[in-house]
From TrEMBL:
Natural source organism: Thalassobaculum fulvum
Domain Manganese/iron superoxide dismutase C-terminal: 96-195
Listed InterPro entries: Mn/Fe_SOD, Mn/Fe_SOD_BS, Mn/Fe_SOD_C, Mn/Fe_SOD_N, Mn/Fe_SOD_N_sf, SOD_C_sf
Manganese/iron superoxide dismutase N-terminal domain: residues covered: 3-86
UniProt key word Metal-binding: yes
Underlying gene: sodF
E.C. designation(s): 1.15.1.1
Protein name in the entry: Superoxide dismutase
Cellular-component GO terms for this entry: cytoplasm
């Protein structure tokens, strides 16, 4: 299946002041689109043309002949999800079931947020921080370099934050901690996270 750029699920200025229209225009129209265009070019002739995006990500991970395809396909998957992990007037209270699981696996919502922000801040260079369901069924916070994601690692992603500079440099300059904190406090679509947790359980 050829990769396609999905439209943003909200207006470019919908996440302001936490993420500006300028950031979303560049991030979606230029960066995400480049992963789609490059991914489609690199997919040609691999024999993976008919596979789903998840299958392409899994099949190309750690295959040194397919590194370019992996980087673009994984980033395509990451960004499709990333747009849906945010919403206007995001953040705030979590749906009850999700909050219960977070408190049970991390001790408190604040501890989870602290771990998540810390993972994003300490990811050296480009990458992502995640809330994922691990192989043992417990929720965990992780971080990955570049495009690597829970799909490649055989885990289920519930939430991910893009900590590549292109995601925050226009609005936050070098202040990555402020950006990740604004993401968890004011941008996350917790209903979407709860939906993914319900699907994973
Ligand atoms: Fe990005």
């Amino acid at each position: 299946m050829a990769f396609e750029l999905p439209p943003l699920p909200y207006a470019y200025d919908a996440l302001a002041p936490y993420m500006s229209a300028e950031t979303l225009e560049f991030h979606h129209d230029k960066h995400h689109n480049a992963y789609v265009v490059n991914g489609n070019n690199l997919l040609k002739g691999t024999g993976l043309e008919d596979k789903s995006l998840e299958e392409v990500v899994k099949a190309s991970y750690k295959d040194e002949k397919l590194t370019g395809l992996f980087n673009n396909a994984a980033q395509h998957w990451n960004h499709i999800e990333f747009w849906q992990w945010m919403k206007p007037n995001g953040g705030g209270a979590m749906p009850g079931e999700l909050e219960k699981r977070i408190v049970s696996d991390f001790g408190s919502v604040d501890k989870f947020k602290e771990d998540f922000v810390n993972a994003g801040v300490t990811q050296f260079g480009s990458g992502w921080c995640w809330l994922a369901v691990g192989a043992d069924g417990k929720l965990k916070v992780t971080k990955t370099p570049n495009g690597v994601n829970p799909v490649a690692l055989g885990e289920t992603a519930l939430l991910g934050c893009d900590v590549w500079e292109h995601s925050y440099y226009i609005d936050y300059r070098n202040r990555r901690p402020d950006y990740v904190k604004a993401f968890v406090d004011s941008m996350v679509n917790w209903e979407r996270v709860a939906e993914l947790l319900a699907k994973a359980s």
